[in-house]
Amino acid sequence: MVFIAKFIAGVRILIPYLAGINRMKPWLFFVFNTIAAVVWSGVFIIAGRYIGEFVTKYWPFFKHHVVLLILVVVVLIVLFVWFRIWEHRVARVPNTMTPTRPAPLHRN
User: What own/partner pairs with CB < 8 Å and gap ≥ 24 does 47-50 have?
Assistant: First the structure.
C-alpha cells in the first residue's frame, strides 16, 4: 500500500496517517516509504531527462506552431465534451414510438 501510493498524487500525502490508523509498525513503514521514495525519484528523474530531450529536439517546431497546437487541443477537448453531453442526452430521451395506454376518462 505504501509503495504504490507513493506514485499517486494526493494519496501520497495521506499514507502516513493511514499507516498509523491501521497500526503499521513504524520500522516497516520507514522501510517501504524509503524504498518507494528512491524508486519514485528515479522514475521521475529518468522521465524528466527523456522528456527534456524530446522538448529540446522539437522546440523549434513547437515555438512556431504553439498557437496551432493549443487550438487543436482546445478543439479536441470541446469535441470530446460535446460528444459526452450528446451521448448523455440521447440516452435520456424517452422512446416516443411505443404506444401507451390512454388514461381513463373518469373514476368509478
Answer: none
